[in-house]
Write a structure and sequence with these properties.
- This protein has 480 residues and is of the alpha+beta class.
- It has 13 helices and 21 strands.
- The strands form seven sheets. It has a seven-stranded antiparallel β-sheet with strand order 3-2-1-20-19-18-15, sandwiched between helices.
- It starts with 26 loop residues before the first helix and ends with a helix.
Length: 480
């Protein structure tokens, strides 16, 4: 995938946003020679899901996914997947390890259905749902100047007459940028970072400048799309100011618990049992060097090696610096929790017979706010990956070229394109995807807990996704 949806990643992706083998029923299913992917794609094109018994199709999909995870050239540390068809969960499976004991393999722990993962920028989408809860409560106006909530005037100093709104934050059109940073310690307030007179304003790289504009282009707030993690740090702070509650606790109390979802935006809020089920994220990379033959190297959430030390935040004032709680990428959640969120959205705000959001609110979240127009120079499509955006949700338009575009699955004869809404995530070796079609109520979720090779050097064939993401999605698409 061409973009990093989170923090801590080296290389070109960092410029955008800083982006599971429960051993199968038999070891032979995993260690068997993997079928070439082109054969799998061809099989998908000539065999519809309706013509294959469900149990047989499940077995075929599981075998194919196991071969992707165990590919000796491009192995994955772990994978958790789930498919929903016509609003019902029809398949879920896990592969690989959530914890790899480098020197004692017998102590490895397998990924299972209850494994939690730090899902990177899929966190943004869930935070957007929390923001919409505040809108419904009348405590947040999408089109009001965010200064109203923060208690000080927030302006891009290069465009001082243009107010910045929550809608702009959610649609990545605020004119904020990540170059100045987007994660700050407890002694830094966003007030001191966003305002030119602030102690942490520094060179002002957090704001887009007119000097970067080309002919016919405007970088003013509301005019130009640029994927930015800082938008969610500011959004979380606005949400705190509007709710009077810490972002992580607000999301726990207002979104996760009411939906019956296990998880938290910071591991501090996980129970000991939940913490024990948290996957370590891995890469076969050490000191910035990828090594396929080398060991899996833990990148984050390895609390067996380094026990979690809770921070002292007793004096934290909500509305001052929500980056402490990683609204842009810190959500720890399992695939079943993501499925409950997806089902709620598919049902336009209802889950288990109870209404969580109004239908109009769900439609607003998914509605198009921006679409890439090359001739209008209205945004950065980032190698074709970003073609359209809603309010915290990416809209996948099935744009495709070699190594370019937002297409999710390889074209299948007789099937319509999978045009979906949702979000992608990338960080610390993790790659995740949450995407569904509101019309058909078909959806797919995947979480990869570690990659062995540089995604930048292993691009997909028909999109800006990585090669293995394309393979996983096209394999799951056989269910539809």
């Amino acid at each position: 995938m061409r973009a990093i949806m989170q923090i801590g990643q080296p290389g070109r992706r960092q410029k955008v946003c800083q982006r599971l083998l429960l051993i199968c029923a038999s070891a032979a299913a995993i260690t068997a020679q993997a079928m070439p992917f082109w054969m799998g794609a061809a099989m998908a094109q000539t065999s519809s899901a309706s013509s294959v018994p469900q149990s047989s199709l499940d077995s075929q999909v599981t075998k194919k996914l196991a071969s992707i995870v165990a590919d000796p050239q491009l192995p994955l540390a772990g994978l958790s997947v789930l498919s929903i068809k016509n609003g019902k969960i029809i398949y879920q499976q896990q592969f690989g390890q959530r914890y790899i004991a480098r020197d004692h393999p017998a102590n490895n722990l397998a990924v299972d259905a209850q494994t939690l993962f730090r899902v990177a920028s899929v966190s943004k989408m869930v935070a957007a749902i929390g923001a919409m809860c505040l809108v419904e409560q009348g405590r947040l106006d999408l089109d009001a100047d965010i200064s109203r909530y923060l208690g000080y005037q927030v302006r891009n100093p290069h465009f001082p007459d243009v107010a910045i709104t929550t809608r702009m934050l959610l649609s990545h059109t605020s004119s904020l940028r990540d170059e100045g940073g987007y994660n700050f310690p407890a002694n830094v307030s966003l007030h001191s970072f966003l305002l030119p007179a602030g102690a942490h304003f520094d060179r002002g790289l957090q704001w887009a400048r007119p000097s970067g504009e080309q002919a016919g282009e405007s970088r003013a707030p509301g005019k130009y799309f640029h994927y930015v993690n800082l938008n969610w740090g500011v959004l979380g702070t606005v949400m705190e100011a509007a709710s009077g509650q810490r972002f992580d606790m607000f999301m726990r109390d207002t979104v996760l618990r009411p939906l019956g979802v296990t998880g938290a935006y910071h591991p501090e809020l996980l129970s000991p049992d939940e913490l024990s089920r948290l996957a370590v994220l891995y890469r076969k990379q050490e000191n910035e060097i990828w090594n396929l033959q080398g060991p899996w190297v833990a990148q984050t959430d390895d609390f067996r090696a380094t026990p979690l030390v809770k921070r002292s935040l007793d004096n934290y004032v909500p509305g001052s610096n929500a980056t402490l709680f990683s609204p842009q990428g810190g959500l720890r959640i399992d695939v079943q929790g993501l499925a409950r969120i997806m089902l709620m959205l598919m049902n336009e705000g209802e889950l288990d017979g109870r209404r969580f959001l109004q239908s109009a609110s769900v439609r607003a979240l998914l509605s198009e706010q921006w679409r890439y127009d090359k001739s209008a120079r209205n945004g950065d499509d980032y190698h074709g990956l970003f073609q359209a955006w809603g309010l915290g949700f990416q809209r996948f338009s099935d744009v495709s070229a070699q190594h370019y575009g937002d297409r999710l699955v390889s074209p299948v004869k007789g099937k319509p394109a999978f045009k979906a809404v949702g979000h992608l995530g990338f960080a610390y070796g993790l790659q995740s995807g949450f995407m569904f079609d509101p019309a058909t109520r078909n959806g797919m979720i995947y979480i990869i807990s570690g990659v062995a090779a540089d995604p930048e050097k292993n691009p997909g064939n028909y999109s800006s996704l990585s090669l293995w993401e394309e393979q996983i999605l096209t394999t799951l698409y056989r269910f539809y």
